[in-house]
Specification:
Elements lengths: L4 H26 L3 H6 L6 H28 L4 H29 L4 H9 L2 H34 L10 H47 L5 H12 L12 H13 L5 H4 L11 H32 L3 H6 L6 H9 L2 H39 L6 H22 L5 H22 L8 H25 L9 H18 L8 H8 L1
Length: about 500
């Protein structure tokens, strides 16, 4: 069977690609209007919503970038997993009920709809839409780059396709993504999330066992091997250090309340009561799937320390190759094929979610903020905007630097956290919050995040002690939001909105 390893992987991935086309066509028949395209008609059941929420968090960021970060910096990356798990609980506690109630009261089809209704400000809607667009481009770039890397490594084993460039891999994978997103909208996304979430929970457990048995001594030998080579990597804080890891707490725990691809799914439930099932299901699924993130990263690093052939060492010079390399070389071919198919499902469904909220910003929120109404024939223009965003993100991914999947994902997370978390997580639980404060928090977070990015890319400047720029942005925007709210005139809140906030 080993002789047919690559063939099995290609069959699984090809079957998944074909299934994506089928899901897109099926979802197109259920997508009658923009409410279906953006919000799945507010009709998701608890199981579908629960699996969709946790699986949209992992995607290429978790399954390609995550193991790459563990491989590169050791235990530090595990803090992302821990903090994101806490973030799920905070998000559901602060927003689970209110998001669904507000969506029902205002018939909302986007997060900026709710923000505009809460603060009574079209400027707040506009700024929120712009923040979503900026974060979406970073996240989409990371998803498409992850797809291209995985596809190129699979095809590299095929003599006929081994010379296929990364640009062609981007084109092939993006073509399927575009068809599936344009036809099916968010309905296609959440049902693909359901498939890949269930697959990845089972596969993550099996791969974690495969990682544990890759060396005779299991994880004891793995940890000892890494510790001898680099003691800091296996220390409680890893190579990032205590302040760097604690800054990730703010970014991935508190900042989790500002991730639009997660919190907008809370607007899609059939009933508020479903949250009692959705939260534990999301938390359990995320925790089990994250075993893949941790297991592969540590195992590959230990194998590299113990010595691999030079050709494989060259391949692993890029940390983002850690997960695909492990699946191609250290896992049973059928399991590897299934995981690769699940990986593509994770990436594409998450990318669809980002394309969806980005398209909503373009065709619904920005026009509504500027001229008082969205575009005519909103469903048609939503599909056009989805296509344009996908092409732009594909170009961005081709020309972004190597080793950037996790970093692009972290940057996108930081943009969302600083701009959205204070305005939504605090503002939807505190009536004293004002539109002026919301506008300042969003605008300042965008300026600071872009400033940090330019300082890092142009002058190679970093915050001391590996502190995350996204975490600093979140702290500053949150303080500004609270201080300005306390010192500005309160807004009059619509009685229906106020009633939902009181629940």
């Amino acid at each position: 069977m080993e002789d047919y390893r690559n063939l099995i992987t290609m069959i699984c991935v090809s079957a998944y690609m074909a299934a994506c086309v089928a899901v897109g066509l099926w979802a197109m028949r259920r997508t009658k209007n923009s409410r279906d395209f953006f919000m799945a008609g507010h009709s998701l059941g608890a199981i579908v919503a629960g699996v969709a929420i946790f699986s949209s968090t992992l995607s290429g960021f978790g399954f390609i970038g995550g193991p790459g970060l563990v491989y590169r910096m050791g235990i530090s990356s595990v803090w992302m997993v821990i903090c994101a798990s806490i973030g799920f609980c905070l998000t559901f506690h602060l927003l689970g009920k209110r998001m669904r109630l507000l969506a029902g009261v205002r018939k909302a089809i986007s997060l900026p709809d709710l923000v505009a209704a809460r603060y009574g400000s079209e400027l707040t809607r506009l700024l929120m839409a712009v923040a979503i667009l900026l974060g979406v481009m970073a996240y989409l770039g990371s998803q498409i780059k992850a797809m291209a890397i995985a596809l190129q490594l699979i095809l590299a084993e095929n003599p006929l396709l081994s010379d296929l460039s990364s640009e062609w891999c981007v084109i092939i994978s993006s073509a399927v993504l575009v068809f599936y997103c344009v036809t099916g909208g968010i309905i296609a996304s959440v049902y693909t999330d359901l498939f890949q979430g269930l697959v990845m929970v089972v596969a993550a457990l099996l791969i974690f066992l495969a990682a544990a048995t890759s060396l005779p001594g299991g994880f004891t030998e793995i940890s000892q091997t890494i510790a001898v080579d680099d003691p800091e990597a296996m220390s409680p804080w890893g190579t990032l250090g205590i302040l760097g890891c604690l800054s990730w707490y703010f970014l991935f725990a508190l900042g989790g309340t500002g991730q639009p691809h997660v919190i907008t799914k809370m607007m899609m439930n059939k009933s508020v009561r479903d949250n009692r099932t959705v939260l534990p299901l999301s938390l359990l699924g995320y925790g089990l799937s994250a075993l893949l993130w941790i297991g592969i990263g540590l195992t590959v690093r230990a194998l590299v320390v113990q010595g691999l052939p030079q050709s494989e060492m060259d391949q692993l010079a890029n940390p983002d190759n850690a997960a695909p390399w492990f699946l191609q070389n250290k896992v049973h071919p059928i399991l590897a094929g299934i995981v690769f198919a699940g990986l593509f499902a994770a990436i594409m469904s998450t990318a669809d979610g980002f394309l969806n909220i980005g398209a909503a910003a373009i065709v619904h929120d920005i026009p509504t903020a500027l001229r008082g109404r969205s575009l005519l024939n909103e469903l048609f223009w939503a599909r056009v905007a989805t296509l344009v965003l996908a092409v732009a993100a594909a170009v961005f991914s081709v020309y972004s630097p190597h080793n950037m999947i996790a970093l692009l994902g972290a940057y996108g997370w930081g943009v969302f956290a600083g701009a959205i978390a204070p305005v939504v997580a605090i503002g939807f639980n505190w009536k004293r919050a004002t539109a002026v404060a919301a506008n300042l928090a969003i605008a300042s977070s965008l300026v600071i995040n872009i400033g940090f990015m330019l300082l890092q890319k142009i002058w190679d400047w970093q915050l001391p002690y590996h502190i995350s720029g996204g975490a600093v942005t979140l702290v500053i925007s949150s303080i500004l939001f609270i201080v300005v709210s306390l010192n500005s005139k309160p807004n009059k809140i619509d009685p229906l909105i106020e009633a939902a906030l009181d629940v």
